[in-house]
Design goal:
Elements: H1 3-38, H2 43-80, H3 83-110, H4 112-117, H5 123-155, H6 159-182, H7 192-216, H8 232-267, H9 269-285, H10 287-305, H11 309-344, H12 349-382, H13 387-411, H14 416-423, H15 426-429, H16 431-440
Length: 455
């Protein structure tokens, strides 16, 4: 790739990545608002919401995986100019997302205490967390529709529209958080349950806005009728390529939630509270690298869909350079956050000690996440290669990190920070295999077909 093409690629990446960065920052801002406001309510509410929100984290992984599947196929078909195939892919993803979100919503409303018992034996945290889950159930249902539609918009390059919808929802969420946590304008003070209620109301508004955008759109629409578009070839491709991506994200998300189980069951409430702040800061630290991975994956998919494979390979090399740079920036961002977070956090002296150590560990951990996310969720999936990531992450998390964490905490009874350090080696253990797969070029494929939608 010559210097002119380099500049063009950087420009296209910036155009796609900038709105995604804003979107991810706003998402992180909502999480930070939850922690900041609940900090005035008490450590128990912070801990309970942190644990209850693990179900939303797992659901996010499911929807993110489905959205990745949508992006993986739709970006290439959009590059090819086949919009009917894009509609069919959206419909296939909706079938799965609606089923999963309804199941979780019913569970959160009917058996919230049982769901909380998985993460903690503390009756106070169980009671607070159960109230949160009941009130957030409606948000899960809305989320299933919204994420698939926004992923379709992103796959055709309309990142700004999805960012605008998320912006409205996130800002509304923060405002409603304040209303229901502190009882503003005559509203009841609901604490953790107020956070959930704010989330549900903001998601309902976002879904309404998405329907309005869809009605005015000339190409990408959110229609239930898309679920009935017949395409055996696309359905097989979705199962072959998108489902491994979904299973990959679910497997990784469940394993990452097991970290919270280890912390909650064996390391104490001080460690749970410290982990809430740490997760928040790490989210801000990884915003840039995750956005580069997302934007880069969309662009690479479109280029491969157009059949320009040599250019796609060169673009991937440029993307890796941007990834390393974003990882360095993310690590420095985490480091810069340590003094203000330590000053603000309303934790015990022990909790503050844990918090400082965990943040220092994350100054380099974000680099591991940056490289692996860009390659597995960005570069590989752009060419339809999702199976490698599923196998790699499943082995790494379930055969290495999770067993190691349980063994270190329950059997060896190591100090909490040592357990956390061992858990945070997961990203670096898989580097040799991930980088080796990148160099093999097996991911470099055009996955589109001719006449995939049946009449």
């Amino acid at each position: 790739m010559d210097k002119t093409r380099d500049k063009q690629f950087y420009g296209r990446i910036a155009k796609l990545t900038a709105p995604i960065i804003l979107q991810n920052l706003l998402s992180a801002a909502v999480s930070s608002a939850d922690v900041v406001m609940l900090n005035f309510v008490g450590q128990e509410h912070i801990s309970a919401v942190s644990l209850a929100a693990q179900y939303a984290s797992v659901l996010f992984m499911v929807l993110y995986g489905l959205g990745t599947g949508v992006t993986m196929l739709s970006a290439q078909y959009f590059g090819k100019g086949d919009m009917r195939a894009v509609d069919a892919v959206e419909g296939i993803a909706l079938r799965f997302s609606i089923g999963v979100t309804f199941l979780l919503a019913v569970s959160a409303f009917a058996i919230p205490k049982l769901m909380m018992c998985l993460f903690t034996p503390d009756p106070v945290l169980i009671e607070i967390g159960a109230g949160y889950l009941r009130n957030v159930a409606a948000a899960y249902i809305c989320w299933g529709f919204i994420e698939v539609y926004l992923a379709t918009l992103r796959s055709v390059g309309r990142v700004g529209v999805s960012t605008a919808l998320n912006t409205v929802a996130f800002v509304l969420n923060i405002l409603l958080n304040a209303v229901f946590i502190f009882g503003l304008f005559g509203a009841p003070k609901l604490g953790a349950a107020g956070v959930a209620l704010a989330t549900s109301l903001s998601r309902i508004v976002e879904l309404i806005l998405a329907v309005i955008v869809s009605a005015r759109s000339r190409d990408v629409k959110m229609k239930l009728s898309h679920m009935f578009i017949k395409s055996r070839a696309l359905f097989r491709d979705f199962l072959k390529m998108a489902m491994p991506a979904t299973l990959n994200d679910v497997s990784w998300g469940l394993a990452f939630s097991m970290y919270s189980v280890i912390i909650g069951q064996f390391l104490g409430t001080d460690m749970v509270a410290a982990n809430s702040f740490t997760s928040l800061v790490r989210t801000f630290g990884t915003v840039l690298c995750f956005s580069v991975a997302s934007g880069g994956g969309i662009l690479l998919g479109q280029i491969m869909g157009e059949g320009r494979m040599e250019e796609a390979e060169q673009c991937a090399k440029v993307l890796m350079k941007l990834t390393v740079l974003s990882g360095l920036v993310g690590g420095l961002a985490v480091l810069a956050c340590i003094p203000p977070v330590m000053h603000f956090a309303n934790l015990t002296e022990t909790g503050l000690g844990y918090l400082k150590g965990m943040l220092l560990i994350n100054t380099y951990y974000v680099m591991g996440q940056a490289v692996n996310t860009t390659l597995i969720a960005g570069v590989f999936r752009a060419g339809g290669d999702s199976r490698f990531g599923f196998i790699c992450d499943t082995i790494d998390m379930w055969l290495y990190a999770v067993p190691l964490g349980f063994f270190a905490a329950a059997v060896l009874k190591l100090p909490p920070l040592w357990v956390y350090f061992l858990l945070c080696t997961d990203e670096f253990v898989k580097w040799p295999w991930v980088i080796g797969h990148y160099r093999s070029r097996k991911w470099l494929k055009n996955i589109t077909r001719e006449n995939v939608v049946e009449s």
